[in-house]
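fold description:
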Amino acid sequence: ITARKRARIKTSLSEFGKRPAILLVSGAQDAILYAVADGNIAKRGRVTVKALPYADREGFFGTRQNPWSGKGVARAGAAREKDKWKPRAEFFKKMVIALADLRTETNAGELFVFAPAYIVKELEMNLPAALRRMVAKTFRGEYTHAHPFELLEKIARAMPAPVSVLPEEAEKILKRKNRS
């Protein structure tokens, strides 16, 4: 992680510093990438795609009456809608490229995804198999404006507590107490 824009992870969340990971915080057309390694978290990139503007003749409807009788109305035209799939496909393409670059740069083993529920399935379908296998946990919701420490705390609450192995002496003491 480069020196610019990195923050030291709190000691209560220090288990994230031991293993490199990537946090993907996504919206429909905006994503932020964070890298976690060596006890630091840093914003490593942002992927944004602007929505397509409406066409000039958007919502053009024409109406006319029958010129001989003056009765009846003929309507023509249709409401134009934004093509939401084209910018989304471009967004996913850019995001996958940025994720793959960050993965090779940081050698991360885990990927934590924060995205709205309506886009999670589409996001996972667009990830290549190698990145899909890296996904450790997916959080549904709007987190694009959340502080990185809030994201780490959310991960800490969702992940099971690590099991500590007792030293041999501690096991012997516990066995002696259980016998008596």
Remarks:
- The two ends are 54 Å apart (CA to CA).
- The mean pLDDT is 79.
- Strands lie at 6-8, 21-26, 30-37, 40-48, 61-65, 73-77, 110-115, 135-140.
